[in-house]
Amino acid sequence: MIVCRSAAELAKMREAGRLVGEVLTELAAHVAPGVTTADLDELAETRIRKAGATPAFKGYHGYPATICASVNQEVIHGIPSGRRVLNEGDVISIDVGAELNGYFGDSAITLAVGQVSEAAATLLRVTDESLYKAIEAVKPGGRISDIGHAVQRHVEAFGFSVVREFVGHGIGQKMHEEPQVPNYGEPGRGPRLAEGMVLAIEPMVNAGKPAVKVLADGWTAVTRDGTLSAHFEHTVAVTADGTWILTAREVPVAVR
Ligand code: MF3
Ligand code: CO
Questions:
Q1: CATH of domain 7-245
Q2: Has this prediction a pTM greater than 0.90?
Q3: Does residue 22 come out as left (phi exceeding 0), alpha (psi in the -120 to 50 range) or beta?
């Protein structure tokens, strides 16, 4: 069942989403060579709890941390570690989820650590663009697969590939609700989009081939071919006035 949210519920989800965005903005300011992914995790957990919220990932099917921090060929679900030190030229995907007053927000960004290769910078830009193309494809009366189609079209035009094994999702009073939101496919398929639906749209894009595998830690998904991967995510609501990015960050577009 896909739940449609009232205006009052969407207002609460915006508060959860706003917090998640603020956490990402704070973490982005700390990403630098020498910082560990455990440092970022600690900052995120402190900020979330100070706001009276709860980290959404910690304890979820046994996940041990507040954020997912996925470096270079890691696609998603990288577990923060004090031994994982960021180096100049790395790219790091940071995924944050929080529950505030019974509602969830979920968002991810991928950032360059210092100067990165032109290829890496292009991967980040194109993946971010694909998320916004996907958001533009969200319209009441449209279909779920319109979203993935927009992602795939954009990404493949640059020779990159879309990860198939992981998908976006409905979100509300649970982090993962129906429907699933794939990042590929033909348009015009799947459930109809309707006012009040809230979706976490999260393209995962590889520089090389699409295949991924999960490491022995049971969480970290990496590209099989070892190429770089990027991940951007927003929680968005379908409303009569257009699509509302609940996890929007109040920062200039250039550093979004
Ligand atoms: N944004 C990811 C998702 O929607 C984060 C989940 S990490 C987990 O699935 F640890 F909570 F699973
Ligand atoms: Co998600």
A1: 3.90.230.10
A2: yes
A3: alpha
